[in-house]
Structure formats: C-alpha cells, structure tokens
Amino acid sequence: MTRMIHHSIRHLGVALSILLIALLAACTPSHGQSTFDTVGPVARSQLVLFYWIFWAAVFVFVTVVGALLYIVIRYRRKPGDGDPPQVHGHKPLEIAWTVLPAIVLAVVAVPTITTIFDNANSPDQGALTVDVVAHQWWWEFRYPHPDESGNEVVTANELHIPVNEVVNVTLDSLDVLHSFWIPKIAGKVDVVPNNANTMWIQADIPGEYLGQCAEFCGVAHAHMRLRVIAQPREEFDAWLAAQALPAVDPPDPLALKGKALFEGQAQCFSCHTVSGLKKARGLIGPNLTHVASRGHIAAGELENTQFNLRQWLKDPNAVKPGNIMARDALIYKDADGGYSPLPNESLSEAQVSALVSYLRTLE
Amino acid sequence: MAHATTVPHGEEHEETTTGLSHRKLLIWAFLGSDCMFFGSLIATYMVYRGKSLVGPFPEDVFSIPVTSVSTFVLLMSSMSMVLAYSALVRGSIKGFRIWILSTAVLGMTFLAFQTFEFRDFANYEVHLDCARVEAEDADYLEGLTDFETTFLPRCAAVDEEFSEQHGLTLKTNLFGTTFFTLTGFHGAHVTLGVIWLLSLFFYSFRGGVTPERSLDVDLAALYWHFVDVVWIVIFTVVYLFGVFPGF
Amino acid sequence: MTTLALPLPKRPVHPTGVWSWLTTVDHKRIGILYGVTAIILFLTGGVEALYMRVQLARPGQEIVSPEVYNQLFTMHGTTMIFLAIMPMGAAFFNFLIPLQIGARDVAFPRLNAFSYWTFLAGAIMLKFSWLMGGAPNSGWFGYAPITGVAYNPGHGIDFWIMSLQLLGIASLAAAFNFIVTILNMRAPGMSLMRMPLFTWMTLITSFLLVLAFPVITVALIELMLDRLFGANFFVTRAGANPLLWQHLFWVFGHPEVYILILPAMGIISEVLPTFSKKPLFGYPVVVLSGVIIGFMGWMVWSHHMFTVGLGPVANSVFALTTMAIAVPTGVKIFNWIATMWKGSIDVKTPMLFAVGFIATFIIGGLSGVMHASAPSDAQQQDTYFIVAHLHYVLFGGSIFALMAGIYYWFPKITGRLLDERVGKLNFWIMFVGFNLTFFPMHFLGLDGMPRRIYTYDADMGWNLWNAVASAGAGLIAVSMLVFVANVVRSLMKGEEAGADPWDARTLEWSIPSPPPEYNFEQIPTVHGRDAFWAQKRQGVRTVAVAGGSYNGGEHSIHMPQPSYWPLVAPIGLLMAAYGLIYVSSIFGLAAAVLGGAIAMVSVYAWSFEPVNDPPETSEH
C-alpha cells in the first residue's frame, strides 16, 4: 500500500513537471492562432485577464491538491488503528473557506468587468468600419468606397486593415451561426443572423494573421478560414483604391475565352460578382473582381497559384468537402445530378484552362 | 374482476413522512414542472411579440368580447369543480355527478370556442369599405389596423368592398407560430382535463368515487384549476396585451 | 380492483426469467437495468469518441468524412450526457434511495419501471439513427438555425428531437418519483438533516430535472413544429431570432450540468467518510452548498453565450453570478478534504476514484473560472480549452465519481466485491489516460484550435498535442476494458462481500447483500445521521424492539406487484415518436396515431390497475 502511494506521488510529480514544461511550450509564439502571441489591444486585454486567473488558479491548485495528497498519505490507515475522533465540523473554518475564495473571485471580477466594457465600446466610433458577412463557408468583407459615398468595395476571406488604427467591425450572417475570430488580434464574436453584432479590432504590428470560424456552421466548418492583413496606412489606401476599380478586359485571347465562359456556358455569373461585368452580379459566392490579388483561395485553404486555382476549379469537393459550389453549381453535376469533377460533359479541360487564365487576370 | 368496494387501495392507508399523500405530492411536482413548460411557451410568445414580418397581427384577428366569454366559461368551470369536490366530501355522490359533469361540459364549451376561434383566424379576410376610404372618412381610417392600412392602395381597383383572404396559420408568421403553439398546448391540457373529469364521472357509476377516496377528485381539481390559471395568464398576456397597445 | 371496458390481460406473475425483468417494478432490479444499459451506452459513446480521436490524431486525415465527423461529435455528446451519465445516476438513485432512507420501494414503483423503459425507447431512437439514413449532425446543443430543414433536410435531427423528448419524459417521471419518495417515505426519525448526502443530492437533482426539462421540451417542440409542420420559431427568413434557441437550451442546459455533477458529489460525500472512518465534515454546510448550487444554477446560463453579443451589462452580470457559484463548489471541496483530515484513510479503489475526482474536478473548476471571466472566455469559447474544461468536469468529475460509486456499491448490489488489484489498475490506467487525453486540450485551445473541426493543417502547431490526446484516448479505452473484465470476473468468482464490507455508515449496509426483495425486514428507526454507524459503534438500535415501525411487524410484507403497462406505454411512445418523424407519409401518420393510442390505452389501464391486487384475490 505504502509503495503504491509513494509510487503515485512520484507519478504525480512527473506528470506535474511535464505539464508545466508543456504549458511553456504551448506559449511559443510561432503558432498561427496562438492566443499568447497577441498583436492588438483587445487580445492583449483578454490575455492579461487570463494570466490573472491562471496564476491564482495555479496557487489554488497547488495548495489544495498539496493538502489533499498530504492528508491521504499522512492519515492512511495502519494496522491496529482504531476509529479516529468523529469530528463533525468547525464553524470558523467554514466561514474562512467561504470568505477567502469569495475575496479572490472579487479581485478577479473587477478587471473582468472593466475589460468587458472596454472591449464592448469602440474607442473611435468614427474609424473605418468594415461590414463582415459570414456565409457557409467563407467570409465577405464590405468596405466603404473610398471615393463614392454609399458605394461599397467587396472582397472575401482576406481582411485588410490599416495597422495601429481602430477598425470597427459589424457582423452579420445570411445563413447559420458563425463566429469571427482572429486569436492574435481579438477574441471571438459570434455572427448571428437577424442579430447583427459589432466589435472593434486593432493590430499594432504589420503582418498576416490567421483566423477561423469558431462556431459550428456545418459540413465545411473546418475549412472556413480567414486572414487579416495589417498594413501601413498608405499601403492600405492603395490596396483599397485598387480594389475599388472595376475589372478590366484581359488582353490575352485564352483569358477572353475564359471570360466568355464565365458569363456564359459555365454560369459562374449566377453566383459570383465581377464588377465591370454586366452579367456577373451573383451574390451566393465570393466577389471575384480582384480574386487574383488575394493570397489564398477557397476560404484560405489554398495558396492562390495557377496550379491550385486549377485544382480548386476542377475538383472543389476534394479541397473543401461539402462546399456549396461543388454541391449546387450545374457544371459539377452529372446526368443523375451527382457530383462530377471537371473536366466532364459540361466543361472540357481546355475550357477549364481558359477559365483559370481569366481568373488569374482579375488582379 | 373484483367489485370496487372491496378494494383495499394501498395508497389510501399509507403513512407518509410529510403527511401528504404520495399522489398529492406528485401532482404538485408535476404542476411545478408544467409551470416551466407554459412559462417557456409564454416567454417564446413574448420574445416574438411584434416581430412578425407579415400580417395578420393580433389586433387584426382577436375578438376580445368573444374570448372574454370563453374565459368566463372556463372560470365558471373552476367554480363548479370546487362544488363537485365539496359535494363529494359531504357525501353527496349525486351532487358530485352533477357538478363534475357541468365542469366537463364547461370545459368542452371552452374547447368549442377555441376551435371556432382557430377556424376563424385561419379564414381571416381583410375587408375594406372602399367607399369610406375614397371619402377619406377619418373615423373609419383611424379604426383600421396597421395591416389593413397596407391594403388601402388596393381600393383603387375596386368600387365598394375590398376583400382578400389572409388566413392566420402556424406557418403564416411568428405571431401565428407562437400563438397557435401556446394556445394549442393549453387546449390540449384542457382536453386531457375533460377526459379525466368524464372518466371520474363515469367511474362514479361503478362506485369508484367515494368520499373516502376524494383524493382522486382532489387531484383532478388541482390540475383543472392550474389549467384555468394558466389561461388567465394567456388571456392577459396574449389577448389583452395584444390588442391594447401600451402594455 | 375495478371493471374496465377493455379486455385486459391478467397481471404478470413471473418470479424469475426474462418476463420477471420485463415486468418488474422492484427498484433494485430497475436500478440494475439502468446501470447495465448505461454502461453499454457509455461504451458506444466511447467508441464514437475514439473515432474522432483517430481522425484527429494527425493533421489532414480522411478516415471519416466531415459529415460523419459531425455526426460523431453530436452523438458522442448526446450519448454521454443523456444516455450514459444521467442514467448511471438514475441507476444509483433507483438502487440506493429506498435503501438509504429505509423504505421498501419507491413511491410509484410502476412509474419507475415506466421511466426505465421510456429511457430505453429514447436510447433506441437515438442510436438507431445511425442505421436510418444518418445520425444527427448539429451538436448536442443543436443551435438554430442549422437544425432547420433549410440547412438540414435529412431526418437525423428529427431522430435527435424525438429521442430527447422520450428521454425527457423518462427523466421527468423518475424525478417526480424520487421527489415524492425522498420527501414522503423516509424511515421514522430520518429528518431531512439526517438524510445521507447522496439522498440529498438526489433530491436537489430531481428538483432541477423537474424544472429544467420542460424548458428543453418546449424548445424541442418548437423545433419539431418548424421541421415537420412549417412553423417559424427558428426560421430567420420569417424574422426569427436564433438566440431564442440558445436561451431556452441553456436555461435547461446549465441546470443540466448540475444534474450531471450533483449526484457525483453525493457519491463522493458517501465514499470519503466511509474510507476515512469519519463523518462528513460540515454536513449542514455541504447540504446547503448543494442547495445553493442547485439554486444558482438557474442564474448563470448566459455564460455559455458570452460571445453571442448580449452586451456588456448582461455579460457582466453573468460573469459575476458564474464566479459566485464557484464559492459553494469550493466549500464542498474544502469540506471533503477536511473529512479526510485526521481520518483513518483506507485507499481502496472507491477511495482512489474519489481522491482522483477531487484532484481533477478542481482543475475543471479552476478552468471554469477562467471562462467565467467573459473577456478571457472570448479566446476560449468554442475551442479545445472548453473541451478540456468540460471533460475535467464531466469525466474527471462525474465519471470518476460514478466509478467510485460502482466500486463502492457493487458488493451491495451483487453480493460480491470487485477485485481490488484489478480495480487499482483500472483507476491508474484511467487516471493517466484521462489526463493524457484532456490536459493537452487546454494547450490546443489556447493555441487557437476550434472545436468541432474534423481536420486541421499541419502547420498550425497542433500536431503534437493532438497525437498525445489520441494516445490517451486509447488508454482510456484500455481502462474500460479492464473495468468490464473486472466486473465480469467478479460477478462469477468475486469475493463474497457480506452485508457491510467497508465498515460503512448508512442504512443500506445494515441489510444483506444483495438486499432481499423487501429490503428491510423491519423498517428501521433513525436517531441521527450515519444511523448504521451509530448502531454498530454506540449500540443505537435502528430497529424498534417490537412493532412501532409502520408497515412492518404484524403481517407479511406486501411488495408492489409487477405490471405490463410500464412496458407497453413506452412501446406506444416509441412508435408514436417514430411515426411523427415520417408524419408526412401515410405510414408515418398511421404509426404515430397507433403508437399514441397504445400509450393512451396503457396509461388508462394502468391508472385503473391497483398497485397490489387484493390479498384474497379470486378471479371472477
């Protein structure tokens, strides 16, 4: 019995030290969605609170479990032991261990509440406001047009923001629940249809930050990624100005063929918008006016290269199972209404090449 | 099968810790649970009050005088339930039969009102007296509901009367959905109550209802009064608040 | 006895065999049925979890499709909560409550049997969805609007709704029964403040069940009306607000958390005193903190919704109430530790699980405070950090306590002890496996891994801890095999237990193991807490010298007679629920109507069937 207990203590000791080392390892900043490597005031305030409670928790855990182990070992039954004194309680002790935790919690409660209000109220109501619309399973970002008031600049899955500035975000969904989350910049806020939410974000360091939908939203939930690209103000303005321009006709004949397919036989237009293309006004899928300027495609799944774009167009279900283009677009349907990757009876290999070529021109 | 009078009914002789019989405690626990049930349905109704995107709305379909009558009927049934129980306790089986039957009949009357009301709502039509609309009769126009007002332009196409069916069902809008669900479940409770009361009524002819076993009736009475009280809440929250703005 | 228009079959009289189990109203047999069923279902929920851990062991795997993965986590959660932990608690309620309060059965024996069969119907409903075109796929929480027909045209969600409705009926019936039993059937002298702690926690749990289940019932009815009859409760196109579902769900769901943990706390409060040979420290405080937890459990539901945008005022209020509920929970832990202080501690397997419970439950409690702080929760909500937290509470908490309970009461239930050495092996494998599986999930969550994703990229930094967690899950599976082996082996050739193998304190240990059908030859009289301990140590007699106790003494003991109706009614309910799913077809409608009729007729027949036929029964 004694050996068993000593054994268990040793186990616990080893386990504890492993855990501590592991926790340190978990803090390494290289991970794309680490909540420890914060780059903005919102995430930082949330991390500060976490640390407060974490260290209090470590203290409580060590004390209580220490006492527990000490007691289990110290008072274990020995042969010949009689009944211990039948103690029923101790009033001052009861009061003490009711009041002490209450005080610790009160100490945590104060910064909790101030932080709740700080994070709820944007410090700059007049700052740039981006409307985020979540879809199954991609993100739409709508910016105010830099020149024409009332108009909007629409892009998808990559949220550009000026660094060191407050950016206000409104969140809306047209289908199911989603949650907008870029761990290094800000904790999540859910996207609820018929219940628009707001939040504010700010990044202090230029860079590209990963995020991901955090509320279960269906079959491709795991693939609903996003990126925030924080850049200096001038770069941001230049980017926005470029995004505000309509698409121009490609010079290359193959691409022109692709454009004809886009507006015609392939029926891309029925779900996608390309501003400058009269027919392409679809709102089901992402706005493709400047798709070639984005770093990634398929809601952050693939880098935006010619090869990947081709893969995506040919077999979207392989990249992002269950996505709506693969499910609903007619070009992916075989005679029985089942899924059929390209090339198939709807589009030939050459036509896919033409489409890819056209999309690559939309910079 | 044995004759009822020879039954030594276990629960009647039981000694209990609290002094209350098991079944009495059970029905109280059940009613507490049922409170939460109706509470959730009523909360849902309240959350969606005024949130319907299309009509008809409460003020279009409700008729407070008619529903007041059915509410009165249900209230009276509670009173006759009290009389049934007290008759039984006094040992008057005949009195019990009269009053329990009238309670059941009043309950059925209430259900008839509700059926009529549901049908009426499902067949709701918008009527406009276009002649008075044309004449810009201020009294008439002010008396129109918001929903009816949206049809005013349609008067241009007709001479005298404009009328169009806009039945309210479970599917129509949030009002229809929440209204029919809440009142429907209440109606189901009343229906079960009526079955219970009628069972007691017929059972009494087999000698199953005796003053010594008044608990059987007591339980039914508790249930019946509860269902009645729930209706008072529904009548207030759904009907009165629905028609009189400002609540 | 009464005449009835219906041609009723004769009352069942089967002392042994399958029919005796099918028609039993004996609370001990029903408890065993609950327990065995729950353990089998627990294993199925474990297999579902193993599939997920295999899929997530390495990045980018395609062992299960995303759709199947979604079904797996939905089924795993629903199974573990409604089909494993809750019925395991019910098993203990059934077996123990009458024994602990000195009663011969529960207040409504047939209602008790009805609870079990309805529970089984609900379990069948849920589990068979795998074979009926796909299991539910929207999580155990089933957040609107993804559960609506627009996004979920299959029937998986319908099976989920109907199953939960059946399980709700079963839980409600059981809860009514235990409230009445505990309040009304205590042995003479057993005042409320003399009741064993497990009985107290059962009482509180039953009240929570009675008040919480109607709320989810309404939510499920609303969802059903949407899906099957075109209502608009959660149809955003018609202006519905999806948050309505979340509020209804968590007004039920948070008390539900306490429904899962309070019985566990009750078990711990029985095991610790027995193996420390000391009374529970601060009994009134432990009872009171249980009551406060049960009460405050109603005021914290929105902490599940900190990120949905309720606004800073609501978030602050719910952050405060949530932190406040940590106080009574802490008080319980301190009292447990004080119970062991200066005790004579015998670290038998039940005690090991109980100590393991305290250690792991503290971790769950502390991480709970981390997300009680709403801003901190914004980074944790819907990540693996929450998965870690909830498993520390429900596995490290509830399951460890239930394991302690099984090892503790197994000899009372079966008459044989579980093997100690295998039991310790069972504990250590499970303890290590559990921590290996779930502790790394804290890191994964803080490293930004969301829940409910079927795959992840290799460059996210999540590979190592996912691999560790999957390995740990394998260990848990091994520990369950050890457990099952121990049970089977001990049933066949375990050591004879005798009435009181642990030198325990409460009344159930004063009667033989396994207890006779009537439990107590004479109803005991109670003079204080830990009545059996007092009898053993101080010679305080629990049995009156002659007569005095009700229902005992004079003539032979009448036990409630078996009945068919508690079995037939749930069959009708199952048919009706199944039919409702396909109500748009004539076949479904017919099944629903027929099932409803069967249920109605059985309830009617049941209400005219006396608990006991008259003793001088003569068939006419």
Describe this structure in words.
Chain A is of the alpha+beta class. Chain A is 39% helix and 18% strand. Chain A has helices spanning 2-26, 41-74, 91-120, 233-244, 253-263, 306-314, 316-319, 324-328, 349-361, and strands at residues 129-135, 138-144, 152-156, 158-162, 167-173, 178-182, 186-191, 197-201, 207-212, 225-231, 296-297, 302-303. In chain A, the strands form four sheets. Chain A has a five-stranded mixed beta sheet. A three-stranded mixed beta sheet of chain A has the order 4-10-9, with helices on one face. The radius of gyration of chain A is 28 Å and the shape is elongated. Chain B has a two-stranded antiparallel ribbon with strand order 1-2. In chain B, helix 3 runs antiparallel to helix 4 (93-122). The longest helix of chain B has 32 residues, at 174-205. Chain C is mainly alpha-helical. Chain C is globular. The chains are: A alpha+beta (363), B mainly alpha (247), C mainly alpha (620). Chains A and C meet through helix 1, helix 2, helix 3 and strand 7 of A and helix 3, helix 8, helix 9, helix 10 and helix 11 of C.
